[in-house]
Design a protein that fits this description.
The complex is a heterodimer of chains A (257) and B (529).
Chain A (H helix, E strand, L loop, with lengths): L1 H19 L11 H6 L7 H7 L2 H16 L4 H9 L6 H32 L4 H16 L2 H9 L15 H26 L5 H16 L14 H29 L1
Chain B lengths: L1 E3 L11 H14 L9 H8 L3 H6 L12 H7 L10 H22 L48 H4 L5 H4 L33 E2 L2 H15 L1 E6 L8 E3 L5 H4 L4 H18 L18 H4 L10 E4 L5 E4 L1 H4 L7 E3 L12 H8 L7 H9 L3 E7 L4 E3 L5 E7 L1 H11 L11 E9 L7 E6 L14 E6 L3 H4 L11 E6 L1 H9 L7 E8 L9 E3 L1 E8 L1
Parallel strand pairs in B: 1-7, 2-14
Antiparallel strand pairs in B: 3-4, 5-6, 8-10, 8-17, 9-16, 10-15, 11-14, 11-17, 12-13, 12-15
Helix pairs in contact in B: 1-5, 5-10, 8-10
Classes of the chains: A mainly alpha (257), B alpha+beta (529).
Chain lengths: 257, 529
């Protein structure tokens, strides 16, 4: 049930995001990176805030988070469902999502604040995007990132509290959000700085973080952790499809002869 | 056809199959670890933890490690807490036997008939490892018997295990479903649906009992010596006590041969055993099980062949032992196994036998599992004293359970089953064993109340599962104990408390504080269908 909900919410966020750049151009830039880069040259923060509303900025950040991050919480949400009394399942799952999204919104304030600061300081795109790209690459190979990835696989016990039964789920959601934001924050920061081809970049980034999350926890060490499981799945199903295609072509040729 | 025989019924302590096993093991032991057909490499296929291997003197620090490509293909592959537990280990035994047979052939022995013997420890007088594994000497007096391992300190290695009957059981053999719904409910005979799972998660039925507990009862731990820092609070475990060292003890394969026999017995013995559903006593039919973890993009099951080429297999290849060219001389499990539990339950609850129609309805209905009670969180286990805990019950859930147990004439539903979950059990020691009792009176001695015993837990595999860097990020192992019979009795005796359930945990021996044994939470589940 919650899988459908995730698919609908995340799918809608993706649709809104893509359509906002095309048929729904009338929606004022609903992508955070565009919201930020469509601004004229900024000389100070107050001037910037005259052009852009915090509500719009928050909404567009929320859309990015719902589109990209929601599919990654299917497994912990299932854990919350299983470890809840039947009458509290929905409340607890919503509490988990609330805690998770709240942390990501806080992370958004920090990341968008840095982007603002870069723009106000008139840092050129080459420097800012190049710097963020280097930072992201450095983070991807850093052992601490593996630590945060591993923590995203934690599924703690959630004994319900008498007074506020939802509290353990809220705490779990917030904690999960913290490790998720630490793990994926630099990638999101890079996305905020790429105005051109932002949609493609966001899609690629989403595919990468989804594929990465399929990997189990691993030994903490320096180096890029490739999404081997996703790659093996692609190879397995790719080979199967090719074989099926070859078989179909073979029987087709045989029939023609 | 290779026939696997009862090791205690071969006629002699050093009967031919044992003697040639020892010779094969010795030949494999002569090869270095970095050779894929060596004894140590076969051990590493199951599990490899170099620091522990060095401490346990399995390897010297200077010994070369397995080659990187071989390591990636073969090592750390054993499947635990998974529905692949049985098929993976069957393939492992087949590959191992082929290797031993190859060595026997080179030695001019009976390679065309040799097969691994099994050890049925459920038979009276056979609760200790076979004599050939307990002596340093060969039959001719030479003192380098490769079947002998010093690092076995458990009761089943040192002498007949006196507490075997109260600690080891075959309850899993009564469960007609291979893979249960999980989610706190039944795990099934063969374990839960997982991907490639080296360890951590929820243990399956036959894996928990008798597999895990027998491992620990053989391996045990050194009476005094402890591991070096940072694990100085943990006693040195016997080789069989930890998955990463278990397969370098020759008794491992004899024990697993019996576990494999139990799988065959569960499938086929006795023929025509009663079933209540189309999936009873059958292996999973899902593609994900049949085609193995590679079908979902995970590691494939791979073993080295005697010619050092790679044999890749999938669970569906392992289903039919006869098609693989093997049989067992006896499929009697060894302890009483109740196979018609539903009828017995209905009788105990004072309910009439379900009509065929109602049973059919039950078969078609969807299984639902819900949490119906929870403890207040972490329970730390230390010392040798019994520890009490309480599970607070959710009233609406209890009402649903009672309604399903109710013996009213109109009730044609199958009564719910009840399960106790010991969630996220973490430990720095795999050798810990404890028993879990339900509804024990405060002044009652646990040993006198075997009817209140929910189960015996061995923490085999807990060290790895508790590591932050393990596949499951240190979530530990979750144990699911069926307590349907206990709850039924409490209900019939009108002593089922609607608000709470008393749980008592009785350690076997002393659990040192340094072992860091903790249960994340104790919870209660009902499963309807």
């Amino acid at each position: 049930m919650h899988l459908y909900a995730i698919a609908v919410v995340s799918g809608s966020a993706w649709a809104l995001y893509f359509l906002a750049g095309g048929p729904l151009m009338w929606i004022p830039s609903l992508c955070t990176s565009r919201v930020l880069t469509d601004l004229p040259n900024l000389s100070d923060f107050r001037y910037a805030m005259a052009w852009i509303s915090p509500a719009q900025l928050s909404a567009s950040w929320m859309i990015m988070i719902l589109a990209m991050m929601l599919p990654m919480i299917a497994a912990p949400l299932e854990h919350v469902r299983v470890r809840s009394f039947a009458g509290f399942r929905i409340t607890n799952m919503l509490s988990f999502v609330a805690g998770y999204v709240f942390v990501w919104m806080l992370a958004g304030f920090v990341l968008i604040g840095i982007v603002f600061a870069l723009r106000v300081s008139q840092v050129g795109p080459l420097v800012s995007v190049g710097g963020a790209a280097l930072l992201t690459i450095g983070w991807l190979v850093c052992p601490w990132r593996q630590v945060s990835h591993n923590r995203c696989h934690r599924r703690p016990s959630l004994p319900p509290r008498r007074v506020a039964p939802f509290l353990p789920s809220l705490k779990f959601g917030a904690g999960h959000g913290v490790w998720c934001a630490i793990s994926c924050g630099p990638i999101m920061f890079l996305l905020l700085l790429i105005p051109e081809h932002g949609q493609g970049a966001m899609l690629v980034a989403a595919m990468w973080v989804w594929a990465e999350r399929l990997e189990p926890a691993k030994q903490v060490k320096f180096g890029l952790s490739l999404p081997k499981r996703a790659l093996r799945a692609v190879r397995y199903y790719g080979t199967k499809a090719v074989r099926r295609w070859d078989g179909a072509m073979g029987s087709c040729v045989g029939w023609m002869q | 056809m290779y026939v696997r025989q009862n090791i205690y019924e071969l006629g002699d302590d050093w009967a031919d199959p044992i003697l040639w096993y020892a010779r094969g093991v010795q030949a494999m032991k002569a090869k270095p670890l970095d050779e894929v057909t060596s004894w140590l490499f076969y051990g590493a296929i199951h599990g490899y933890l170099r620091w522990l291997w060095d401490i346990q003197k399995i390897t010297e620090q200077s010994d070369p490690a397995p080659k990187q490509s071989d390591f990636a293909t073969y090592c750390n592959q054993c499947q635990h807490q998974s529905w692949y537990f049985l098929p993976w280990h069957r393939g492992y035994l087949l590959a191992f036997e082929a290797q031993i047979r190859d060595e026997i052939e080179k030695l001019g022995g009976p390679h065309d008939v040799w097969a691994l013997p099994y050890w049925n420890y459920f038979q009276d007088g056979r609760r200790v490892i076979p004599p050939a594994f307990r002596t340093k000497s060969w039959p001719d007096g030479a003192d380098d018997n490769p079947l002998f391992v010093e690092r076995r300190w458990g009761e089943m290695a040192l002498g007949p295990a006196s507490s075997f009957d109260s600690e080891v059981d075959l309850k899993a053999m009564s469960d007609p479903i291979f893979t249960g719904p999980g989610q706190g409910g039944a795990v099934g005979f063969g374990g839960l649906d997982t991907g490639f799972n080296w360890g951590g998660g929820t243990s399956g039925g036959v894996e928990d009992q008798p597999h895990n507990i027998v491992h620990t009862l053989i391996g045990g731990e050194h009476p005094t010596n402890t591991l070096p820092p940072p694990n100085q609070t943990v006693k040195v475990p016997g080789l069989m006590s930890i998955p990463q060292t278990a397969a370098v003890d020759p008794i491992f394969y004899i024990h697993h041969c019996n576990i494999d026999r139990l799988w065959e017995s569960w499938n086929n013995y006795p023929s025509g055993k009663p079933s209540t559903g189309p999936d009873d006593w059958k292996n999973p039919s899902q593609t994900k099980w049949r085609d193995g973890p590679a079908s979902i993009g995970e590691r494939e099951f791979a073993m080295p062949k005697p010619d050092k080429s790679t044999w890749v297999y999938v669970p569906k290849d392992m289903e039919d032992i006869a098609a693989l060219g093997y049989s067992y001389d006896d499929l009697v499990p060894g302890a009483p196994v109740q196979t018609n539990i539903l009828s017995a339950r209905l009788a105990a609850l004072g309910r009439p036998e379900l009509s065929t129609l109602a049973a059919d309805d039950a078969m078609g209905s969807e299984t639902t599992v819900e949490m119906m009670g929870s403890g207040s969180g972490r329970v730390q286990l230390a010392g040798s004293e019994r520890q009490s805990s309480k599970v607070q019950i959710n009233r609406p859930s209890m009402e649903r359970l009672v309604m399903s147990l109710d013996g009213g004439e109109e009730n044609t539903e199958t009564p719910d089953r009840v399960f106790l979950n010991l969630e996220n059990v973490r430990s720095r020691s795999d050798t810990v064993i404890f028993q879990v009792y339900v509804g024990l009176a405060a002044d009652a001695a646990a040993s006198d109340e075997s009817s209140q015993l929910a189960g015996t837990i061995s923490l085999f595999g807990a060290l790895e599962a508790s590591s932050d860097e393990s596949e499951h990020a240190g979530n530990g192992i979750t144990y699911v104990l069926e307590i349907t019979d206990i709850v039924d009795r409490l209900y019939v005796g009108q002593s089922l408390d609607a608000d709470q359930l008393d749980i008592d945990i009785v350690p076997r021996g002393n659990i040192p504080e340094g072992a860091g044994v903790e249960i994340g939470n104790i919870s209660l589940y009902r499963q309807s269908q």
